[in-house]
Design goal:
Layout: H1 5-8, H2 19-25, E1 31-32, H3 35-42, E2 48-53, H4 62-76, E3 80-85, H5 89-92, H6 106-121, E4 133-135, H7 138-141, H8 146-153, H9 159-162, H10 166-172, H11 180-183, H12 185-200, E5 202-208, H13 212-226, E6 231-235, E7 248-249, E8 252-253, H14 263-271, H15 275-285, H16 290-302, H17 308-322, H18 324-337, H19 348-354, E9 360-364, H20 370-376, H21 383-391, E10 395-397, E11 400-401, E12 419-424, E13 428-435
Parallel strand pairs: 2-3, 2-5, 3-4, 5-6, 9-13
Antiparallel strand pairs: 1-6, 7-8, 10-11, 10-12, 12-13
Helix pairs in contact: 12-13, 14-17, 15-16, 15-17, 17-18, 20-21
C-alpha cells in the first residue's frame, strides 16, 4: 500500500456503472481498440494491464502522472497493474517529433530506472489480491542476441507500416531524419507487450495518444504471433485552452520529484490554472466525484473570483504527489508570507521554496540595520526612501512592523539562522540571506 495516506484514501466514483464509463466521463479515452469489448473486459473479471515509463530523465513529470492515475483508477476497479520501467527502451528513447534524443550512458539509465521505480511505487498498491508488479524490459531484451531479435520479432514488422506511424512519418519528412535505433523503438515496445502477454496474461496497454503507433505495434505483434486479440488505450494529450503547452512553468517541466519541483511550486502551478481549463484538470488529475466536480464547475461560472475549483485542484494534486502534510505546509507558507501565519513554524525547505521567486540579496551578519536591509533587498532605492517607508509604517521584517529607523535585527531574529523576509506595504516582498 502507498505510504501516502491521502492517495490511499481515494476511490473511484460509485455513481458510474463501471470504470470504463468513468474513464470516458473524465475524458481519458482519446483513442482505443474495440470500445464495446473494452467496456465488457473492464467490467468483468480482473485483467492484467500495463503502462511503460522510460528513464529519459531522473524524474517523471505531469504527462506521466496522467498514466499513473489512470493505472490507479483501473487498479481500484480490481484490475492488476504491471508497471514497466524501460531499462532497455530507455537506452534508445522513443522518437521525438523534431530531432534525435541524446543517448545517455548505461550507468545513467540504470540509475534513473531506480529513481522512476521509486516514484511509480508511490502511486500503486503492491499488496493484496490485485497487487501491482514492477517489471523492467531489460530483463528480456538483454539476454537476446541481434539475430534472434531479427528472426523472432523483426520478421513480423513491415517497413511500409512502420513508416506510416505519425511520429516516424514526421521525422522522415524533416531535415533531421530518423536513425535506425529510434525507428526500431516501436519493435521493442511491441516485444514488451508480447512478453508481458506471455508471462502474465496482460491484455491491455495504456499510454498517451501520441504513443498510439507504439501501442498498436504490440497489439499487432500478439495477433500475428499468438493469434490473440489484445487491447490498447490512448489517453489524450493535455493542452491548455489557449493552445499553449501544458505542464510547463516558466519554461521548466513540472516534475514529480520534490527536489526538482518543490511542493510549493507544484501547488502554485495548479493554483494558477485558467478558469477555462480547471474543470477538465479536475476530471483528469483528481478523484473528486462527478457531483463534486459539477459543483466546482458551477462555482467557476457563478463566483470565479473565489477560485474554489483551482484551490481544490491544487490541494488534491499536490497531496496525491507529495502527501497532504506537505500540501498543508505549502498553504501555511503562502499565508505566512503575507502576515497571516507564523513564519517561524515553516521548515527551511518550505520557506526556501516559497520565496524562491522573490528578489533576494545577501548581506553580512553584522549589517542588519533596517535601513540597510530595505536598500539591500531592493525594497527601497535609497536610505532616505527607506526611512520614509519606515516612517509611513510600511516596513516589515519577518512580518513584524518596524517603526524605528534605527532598528537593528539581532541574529536571533534570523529564520533558520540566516533568512529575513522583508516586506514593504502589504504585498511587496524580498528575501535577505545573511552570510556566515
Amino acid at each position: 500500500m502507498s505510504t501516502n495516506t491521502f492517495l490511499s484514501s481515494l476511490k473511484n466514483d460509485p455513481a458510474f456503472a463501471n470504470v470504463w464509463q468513468e474513464l470516458k466521463w473524465r475524458e481519458l479515452v482519446h483513442v482505443s481498440t474495440d470500445e464495446a469489448e473494452l467496456e465488457k473486459l473492464l467490467g468483468g473479471e480482473p485483467i492484467t494491464y500495463y503502462c511503460g515509463f522510460d528513464p529519459t530523465a531522473p524524474s517523471l513529470h505531469l504527462g506521466n502522472l496522467v498514466q499513473l492515475l489512470t493505472m490507479r483508477r483501473l487498479q481500484l476497479a480490481g484490475h492488476k497493474p504491471l508497471a514497466l520501467v524501460g531499462g532497455s527502451t530507455g537506452l534508445v528513447g522513443d522518437p521525438r517529433p523534431t530531432a534525435e534524443r541524446t543517448m545517455n550512458t548505461k550507468e545513467t539509465v540504470a540509475e534513473w530506472v531506480g529513481y522512476l521505480q521509486g516514484q511509480v511505487q508511490r502511486f500503486l498498491d503492491f499488496d493484496g489480491a490485485n497487487a501491482a508488479r514492477m517489471v523492467n524490459n531489460l530483463d528480456w531484451t538483454a539476454p537476446m542476441n541481434v539475430l534472434d531479435f531479427l528472426r523472432d520479432v523483426g520478421k513480423h514488422f513491415r517497413v511500409g507500416t512502420m513508416i506510416k506511424k505519425d511520429i516516424v512519418a514526421s521525422r522522415l519528412n524533416s531535415d533531421e531524419g530518423i536513425s535506425y535505433a529510434e525507428f526500431s523503438y516501436q519493435i521493442l515496445q511491441g516485444m514488451d507487450y508480447l512478453e508481458l502477454f506471455r508471462q502474465y496474461g496482460c491484455v491491455l496497454q495504456t499510454g498517451g495518444s501520441d504513443q498510439w503507433g507504439n501501442l498498436t505495434s504490440g497489439t499487432d505483434l500478439i495477433r500475428k504471433v499468438e493469434g490473440k486479440s489484445v487491447h490498447a488505450l490512448g489517453t489524450p494529450l493535455i493542452t491548455n485552452a489557449d493552445g499553449t503547452k501544458f505542464g510547463k512553468s516558466e519554461g521548466n517541466a513540472i516534475w514529480l520529484d520534490a527536489a526538482m519541483c518543490s511542493p510549493y511550486a507544484m501547488y502554485q502551478f495548479w493554483l494558477n490554472t485558467a478558469d477555462a481549463d480547471v474543470v477538465q484538470r479536475l476530471k483528469v488529475f483528481t478523484f473528486r466525484s462527478k457531483a463534486e466536480i459539477e459543483e466546482l464547475e458551477r462555482a467557476v461560472a457563478e463566483r470565479p473570483h473565489t477560485r474554489e475549483a483551482q484551490r481544490a485542484l491544487a490541494y488534491d494534486v499536490t497531496s496525491i504527489v507529495h502527501g497532504a502534510e506537505a500540501t498543508d505546509k505549502v498553504i501555511a507558507a503562502s499565508a505566512a508570507l503575507f502576515g497571516q501565519g507564523e513564519l517561524s513554524v515553516l521548515d527551511e525547505s518550505t520557506l526556501v521554496a516559497a520565496t524562491a521567486e522573490l528578489p533576494s540579496a545577501e548581506i553580512g551578519n553584522g549589517s542588519l540595520n533596517i535601513i540597510e536591509l530595505l536598500v539591500a533587498s531592493g525594497l527601497a532605492a535609497s536610505n532616505s526612501a527607506a526611512r520614509r517607508t519606515v516612517a509611513e509604517g510600511g516596513a516589515y521584517v519577518n512580518n513584524e512592523k518596524i517603526t524605528d529607523p534605527d532598528t537593528v535585527i539581532s541574529a536571533d531574529g534570523l529564520l533558520h539562522g540566516k533568512y529575513l523576509l522583508m516586506r514593504r506595504g502589504k504585498r511587496t516582498l524580498a528575501m535577505v540571506v545573511a552570510k556566515p
